[in-house]
Amino acid sequence: MVHEVPADQEAFDALARERGWSDGLPLVPPTPERVARYLAEWGTAPDEVIGALPPSLAPVTAEKLAVNAVMAGAPAAALPLLRAAVEAVADPGYELHALNATTGSVTTALIVNGAQRHALGIPFGAGCLGGADGRAASIGRALQLVMRNVAGQRVGVTSQSTFGQPGRVNGIVFGEWEERSPWAPLAERRGVPGDAVTAFGTMGTANICEVVATDADVLLKFVGRALAHPGANGYLVQLSFAEVVIALNPVWAALVGRAYPDVDDVRRILWENASIPLSEFPRQHQRQYEDIGWVDARGRVPLTRRPEDVLVMVAGGLGGLHGAALHSWGTTITQTRPVRP
User: Fold this and answer.
1) Are strands 300-302 and 244-248 parallel, antiparallel or unpaired?
2) N or C, which end of the chain is more exposed by having fewer CB within 10 Å?
3) 257-304: per-residue pLDDT in tens?
4) What is the pTM of this model?
């Protein structure tokens, strides 16, 4: 369907709010000239279908993606990244229908790897989760507008999210500081070297502060314990699995990398400590965890079922002292896709 839209921003914003296209922030009018320029720079036919996104299952064409990128203020150069992100969340394993419809406050986080971080200005150092310069917010917003305007995510209608979260407006888009990591990049460890994007369904970001530890084992034990809390979606007995992303700042990563050059050892130690004694849960919960075999030999309930479900990466500022955790919502399986021109 083609809509006549005013080129004036205020007039277009009013129309967008009336039609339900708006996220509440000012939108750039997607005039035919702007959209055509984006498609020309991208070199992609407007009717090329990238994927179908639930709950509407409407096809995301290159033109629809360009329209929403224009409205979000995202650069045309970000369209290959956005295409890969759409391909990732369209994977059935990502369970986008459940993510878009749930009562949970979940959004899609995009973790960016490769040289594109520099070309697009994706932050991976200080302020990478919010506040840094760059185009991350507009890129995340473009994907969220696709959820609204193509996938059909409608608050109180198709989406029953009790609270929502800021990431449902601008998304969460950040890079890995590969140059300061003692390990291979996250996407490469997941089988996709070079330019790539990892889509992760998350309840948001949580800060982990530790200002005393000078020993890798002490630090990892502390961080692991900080990951596990009873209210995390990972502890819902209805779920068969959970994942968690932990971003270590470069100072912590250097300390840990010297002690553990194999990142799998880091994941294992974090996983062993990301658990709660069964006795700390109410009796009803205890019975459920026991019935489904979630209690380990130590009498503890781990946040995730396997060490492989702890995704370790390096990001953040050189000031150190803080880590960032992104807990999964549940049922979504993290997806990584290559980003091609």
Assistant:
1) unpaired
2) N
3) 999 999 999 999 999 999 999 999 999 999 999 999 999 999 999 999
4) 0.96
Q: Is 4 among the domain residues?
A: no
Domain residues for the domain of 258 are 31-336
Q: Residue written as tokens 């459940």? A: 98
Q: What is the dihedral of CA 78, 81, 83, 85, to 10 degrees?
A: -130
User: Domain total for the chain?
Assistant: 1
Say what the pLDDT of residue 1 is.
Answer: 61
Domain assignment present for 136: yes
159 inside domain: yes
pLDDT at 287: 94
**310 vs 291: CA distance, rounded Å:** 24
Q: What is the predicted pLDDT for the residue at 33?
A: 96
HEC string of the chain equals CCCCCCCCHHHHHHHHHHHCCCCCCCCCCCCHHHHHHHHHHHCCCCCCEEEEECCCCEEEEHHHHHHHHHHHCCCHHHHHHHHHHHHHHHCHHHCHHHHHHCCCCCEEEEEEECCHHHHHCCCCCCCCCCCCCCCHHHHHHHHHHHHHHCCCCCECCCECCCCCCCHHHHCEEEECCHHHCCCCCHHHHCCCCCCEEEEEEEEEEEEEECCCCCCHHHHHHHHHHHHCCCCCHHHCCCCCCCCEEEEECHHHHHHHHHHCCCHHHHHHHHHHHCEEEHHHCCHHHHHHHHHCCCCCCCCEEECCCCHHHEEEEECCCCCCCEEEEEEECCCCCCEEEECCC
Q: Reduce the DSSP state of residue 302 to 3 states and report it.
A: strand
Query: What pLDDT shows up at residue 206?
Result: 97
Cα gap 87→126, rounded to integer Å: 29
